[in-house]
Amino acid sequence: MGRVIIVGGGAAGVWLAALLADRGISEIDIIEPSMLLGRGAAYATNNPDHLLNVTPDKLDPHPVNGYETFSSWLARHRPELVSGYCPRGVFGAYMDDVVRELRSRAAIRHHCSTATEISAQPSGLAVILEDGTSLVADHVVLAIGNLPPRRIAPQLKHRRVIEDPWRLDAETIKGAHKVVIAGSGLTAADVAISVNEAAPDAEIVLSANRPFMPPADATVVNWTGAGDIPAARPSRVWQYVVREIRSGDATDHWISVIEATKSHAPRLWEAWIPRDRATFARHGLRHWLHHRHRMPAPSFALMQKLIATGRLSIARGRVGDVEIAGDEVHLTIGGRPVTADVLINATGPSVDIIDEPLLKAAADRGLISPDAYGLGLAASQSGQALGPDGRRTRGLWILGAWTRGTHFEVVAVPLLRKHAGLIVDAITADLN
Question: 215-268: per-residue pLDDT in tens?
Fold first, then answer.
């Protein structure tokens, strides 16, 4: 039934491969530089304090017969974690078993390499690996996940300036007296937890223009009125949601409202005209993401403890003017001079194609283009890549975080499963 190349072997790429194999497509190449498929950056950590920010029941990804759900797997292997917030590495161990099952069903070829170019050929699409190897397939799916943050000190390459928050050097952090973390979101919280373990006496400073951390998550019953939210302009939708939040007596009622609204966010996004989407992307998106992506309760408690004991503080302003002086990092936060032992960039993933050579090469060939809202790549509702002229690129698909401009909500496991299913439906229809 043809050959499919998946660029990116994290959880989304593996779920997609499982769906393809279930439809009879057994010639599947996965390009992933990590030796382990299914983990990606999110689930590769072995730190037990890096927790999933949702409970296990929200992470049952496989609609394919024969694949064990995460909840069932957890009940057998780690029953003590069934009702709480699991370490992300535990979900990674579950994905290891999923990959083993997948390999028993399909001829998965794992290329432990990086894709550098993609081009249209008469016989399909060609993907070039970093060693020059060329792979050709009928269809290619870009499931590359989040990029590292944009560099905050592009002129420097120094071990005390860590630009990728998932590549922390524990030896560098050990003995540090002061560590500055650029960012204050979920990734910054995980980094602060790692720093606290490696240097338990260090002062930790988070910096951000909006200096507040994600709120704590809680298990709630979703608000039942989300289906009545009108598909009106963003300002009216926001007023409607805020009014409901303020009407509740329970302290966690706002979580009930946000969780229910999240399920309807794709409907609202699709109803908005491009101008409304652009307005929300500029003015409302950060506020929405702050409430939508919440911190696991145990992580939140630890962060609050660090604040209460004076170990952690949050400073207003962006990090800039980074320089190295001996073993010190000199920088500014909002223009104010600061000296630290280590600087870590946790400002959030880049969505600029110039930061990913494969995407830049594909854009230069006219195969892909940025979306109109600065959120990722332009794609159709089925996930097909759109070129700069708005036309669909035959055989090229996008799955995951880079389709936020099309679907808006893209990172939740049920939505990844849904969007992967749309792509598989389209691919199998074309190959049959």
Answer: 999 888 889 999 999 999 999 999 999 999 999 888 899 999 999 999 899 999
For residues 306 and 173, membership in a common domain is answered with: yes
Characterise 120 by phi-psi region: left (phi > 0), alpha (psi -120 to 50), beta (else). Answer: beta
CB 143 within 8 A of CB 65: no
Mean pLDDT of the chain: 93
Using left for φ > 0, alpha for ψ between -120 and 50, and beta otherwise, residue 183 falls in left
What's the Cα-to-Cα distance from 402 to each of 57, 160, 180, 271, 353, rounded to whole Å? Answer: 25, 30, 29, 20, 10
Does any domain span residue 419? yes
Same domain, 95 and 126: yes
Q: Are residues 38 and 79 in the same domain?
A: yes
333 and 302 in one domain?
Answer: yes
Q: What are phi and psi of 376, to 5 degrees?
A: 165, -130
Which residues are CB-neighbours of 239 under 8 A, at least 6 positions away? none
Angle at 134 between CA 133 and CA 139, to 5 degrees: 140
- The helix/strand/coil state of 348 is coil
Tens of pLDDT, residues 371-409: 999 999 999 999 999 999 999 999 999 999 999 999 999
Cβ within 8 Å of residue 132, ≥6 positions away: none
Contacts of 59 (CB under 8 A, 6+ apart): 52, 70, 71, 91, 413
Provide the whole-model pTM. 0.93
**Which residues partner with 206 through β-bridges?**
181, 314
The answer to whether position 152 is within a domain reads no
Instruction: Look at the chain and count its residues.
Output: 432
The helix/strand/coil state of 393 is: strand
Note down the domain range covering 309.
Answer: 161-215+294-345
Q: Give CA–CA dist 152/97, Å, rounded.
A: 38
